[in-house]
Amino acid sequence: xxLIHDLYHSQSKKNRFAAQRSIKKIAxxxxxxxxxxxxxxxxxxxxxxxxxxxxxxSGTFASVGTSGLKALEFAADxxxxxxxxxxxxxxxxxxxxxxxxxxxxTQLQFRRAVSEELRIIFxxxxxxxxxxxxxxxxxxxxxxxxxxxxxxxxxxxxxxLTNEECSFWHxxxxxxxxxxxxxLTDFIAMNDELNSIYIIGQDYSFGQVVADNxxxxxxxxxxxxxxxxxxxxPIGQVKDFTPYVTxxxxxGADAVVTGNFGADMVSLARSIIDSGLTVPIYTFYAAYxxxxxxxxxxxxxxxxxIHTDRANPLASDERREFYRAFKAxxxxxxxxxxxxxxxLMMVVQAMEQTQSTDPYDIAVKLEDMRFTxxxxxxxxxxxxxxxxxxxxxxxxxxxxxxxxxxxxxxxxLFTEYEVxxxxxxxxxxxxxxxxxx
Amino acid sequence: xxxxxxxxxxxxxVTGLLLFMLASGLTLIFSMMGVxxxxxASFYMLGAYFAYxxxxxxxxxxxxxxxxxxxxxxxxxxxRYGLRRVHQSGHVAELVFTFGLAFLIEEAVQFFWGRDxxxxxxxxxxxxxxxxxxxxxxxxxxxxxxxxxxxxxxxLYFILTRSRVGIIxxxxxxxxxxxxxxxxxxxxxxxCVFGVGTALAGVAGVIAGPVLTTFxxxxxxxxxxxxxxxxxxxxxSLPGALIASLLVGLxxxxxxxxxxxxxxxxxxxxxxxxxxxxxxDLWTLNLPQVAPVLPYLxxxxxxxxxxxxxxxxxxx
Lengths: 437, 316
What we know:
The complex is a heterodimer. Chain A has 3 domains: 1-32, no CATH class; 49-175 and 316-326 and 336-390, 3-Layer(aba) Sandwich (Rossmann fold), CATH 3.40.50.2300; 178-307 and 392-422, Response regulator (Rossmann fold, 3-Layer(aba) Sandwich). In chain A, 43% of the residues lie in helices and 18% in strands. Chain A has helices spanning 2-9, 13-46, 62-79, 103-115, 127-143, 177-190, 205-221, 242-251, 262-274, 291-295, 317-329, 338-354, 359-366, and strands spanning 49-55, 92-98, 120-123, 150-153, 170-172, 196-202, 226-233, 255-258, 281-283, 303-307, 370-372, 378-382, 387-389, 392-398, 412-419. In chain A, the strands form 3 sheets. A 7-stranded mixed beta sheet of chain A has the order 7-6-8-9-10-14-15, sandwiched between helices. Chain A has a 5-stranded parallel beta sheet with strand order 2-1-3-4-5, with helices on both faces. Chain A has a 3-stranded antiparallel beta sheet with strand order 11-12-13, with no helix packed on it. In chain A, helix 7 (205-221) links the parallel strand 6 and strand 7. In chain A, helix 4 runs parallel beside helix 5 and helix 12 (338-354) crosses helix 13. Chain A starts with a helix and ends in an 18-residue tail after the last strand. Chain B is mostly helical. Chain B has one domain: ABC transporter involved in vitamin B12 uptake, BtuC. Chain B contains 13 helices and 2 strands, in the order αααββαααααααααα. Chain B has a two-stranded antiparallel ribbon. In chain B, strand 1 (129-133) and strand 2 form a beta hairpin. The longest helix of chain B is centred in the N-terminal third of the chain and has 48 residues, at 40-87. Chain B is globular, with a radius of gyration of 21 Å. Classes of the chains: A alpha/beta, B mainly alpha. The interface between A and B is large, with 43 and 47 residues.
C-alpha cells in the first residue's frame, strides 16, 4: 500500500495525523467488510423467512385475529419448522402486525412491515382493510421496484378484490362473497318451506354485498320468496340487538340471512334466541372463538354457515392429526380457518419451486397453481384474477356427529351440503396490470 | 304496528335502565370529586368477567352478590392509592389517569380471560317467557334486569335524600371544607362513593353480561354512550341520569323500529331521485341507519340549548 506508506512517512505533524486517521479508517472498513461477509454466509443458512400477519390483535374484533395468528404460527411450526424448515433449512417466522381492523392503522402497520423488510403479508379480516391494503401495496410496488410486497388475503371476501380492483400483488384464498352466496341461495331455494327472508348486516362493503346479492340471486332462483327486511347496523357498535330482532319478528320472516362476524354475530344470534324466535339463521361466520359455546344448545340445528372448510366428519387422517396436534398444544383454541393453512402451504410450495422468497417469483408461480389441501380438497388458483377455487360447504351448528367440536363445548359444525370446485367457477371482470420484469 | 311499538318501548326501557346503572355511578362520582371517570365502563366489563368466572364455581347468584363487591373493592383501592395521589396534580391529570386506566383494564381482561367471547349464561330459573304478546316473547331475564335497575334507583334515591349518610355525602359535594371541619372524614367518603359507583357499574356488568355477550370490547361499545347520558341528564344529577338514560334508550329503540327515512319524506312532496344521483346515499338514508347517531345529536342539541343538561344545576 504505497499511499499509506507515503502518508505515514510525511514529515509534517498535520499530515502524520491525517495518515493515522486514514489507516484507522481503512482498518475499520476492512474489519467491517469481513464481518459483513461472514454474517452473510451465516445468515443464508440461518436467516428465517419472515411472513407478516396483519389482523386485529386488540380491540373489538381481536378474537378473530388472534385465533388466526395462533393457527398460522402452529401450521408453520408443524409442517415446516419442526421438519427442518424450508428452502434448505430456513425457518418460517410469523411477524404479527396489529391493525386493530382500522384502515388508518393498516397504513401505519404497512409502513412498519416495509421498514422491517417483510415482503409477504397475510391479511384477512375486514374487506375495508383488505381494500386499503390492496391499494397501498399497488402504489408502493409501483414506486419501489425490487422491493415489492405480496398480499395473501385469506378471508376478505369483497368481490371487487378479484374483479374491478384486482391486482397482480393480491391473491385471495377464500371464496368471495358472491361465490358463497350463490351456494347459500341454492341451499335456501331448495327449502320449499321458506317464503320470506330477512337480511340484516353490518353497514360496510361486505354487508352491502351480502344484502344486494342475496336479493338478486334469490330473485333469480326463487322469485316467490319475499324479502321482508333489509337492515344495516353500524359495525361493532350495537349494544343490544333486541330492537332489530323485534322488527324481524314482526316482519314474519321465515329465515334470517346475515354476514355478521365476531361480537356482532353472537349478539345478534343470542338476541334472536332470547326473543323466542325459531327461524333458521343463515350465516358466514357463526362459529368458533366463543361463538359456538355461547350459542350452545339454543342454536342447535338452527344456525347454518357457508364456509370453505369441510367440517365434521373430516375427510382425511392428515387433517385429523394436524387438528389433534394443534389441540394438544392449544387446548383452549381451535383451527378456525383452514384456508390460512392452505395459503401458507401454497406460498411455501411456490417458494420451493422457485427457490426464492421474492414476491414476484412467488406470484408468478402461484398463478394457476393446483394444490391438494390436507383435507383432500382440490384447489385451483386462477391466474387471471388471483381467485382461489375450492369446494364450498354448508354446515349446521349441532352436537350430533361431532368429532371435533368448537370451544370445547361439545357443539360444532356438521357438514350438510357440498359443492365441488368446478361448480363454484364464476366469471370475473378483472383486467390485471402485470408488472414487467 | 302496535306490536312493534310495545316491544320497542320494552327494549328501550331495558337498554335505558342498563345505561342508568352505569350513569348513576358515573354521575355520583362526578358530582363528588369533579372527575369524569373514563374507566367507568371498564368496571362494568370487570363486573361481567368476574361474574362469569364466579358463576362457573358458585352459580349465577353467587356471582351477582360477590362480583360487584370485588369490583367495588378494586374501585375503592384505585381511588385510595391512585386517584387521590393524582388529584394533587389537578383535574387534567385525573382525566388522563382514568383514561389510561380504561386501557389498562381492557388489556388486563384480555390477558387473564383471553379475547374470545365468554359463554356466560343467564340462570336457568329465568329460562321462560315472562309474557308473550303478538307472538313475540319477552324473556323473564329482561324483566329481572328492569326490576334490578328500578331497585337500584329507589335505593340510591332513598339513601341520598333520606338517610344520614346521604346528607353527609350531599354536604361534602357542596361544602367539603365545612363537612371536614365538622369532623367527618371526607377522603373516606370520597373513597366509599367511588367504590359504590364502580360497584354499581359492576352490577350492570353482571346482569348485562349474559344478554349483551361478555367480550373484551364490551366496555368500548358502552363507554361513550354513558358519557352522553350523563351530560344530557346534567352532570351530577341522579334523576337527570335516569331521565336521560331512558330518553337515549327509547330514542334508539324507536328509531331502529321506525322504517321511515328520506325516501318516504320526499315521496310526500312527490320528489324522487334516481339511484345514479351523486347524493344517492343521502336520499336513501333512513331512520334505523342513523339510530346510533341520534344520542350524539341529542347531546349536541342539549349542549346548545341547555348547557347544564336537563336536570343539571351546576354553575360553572
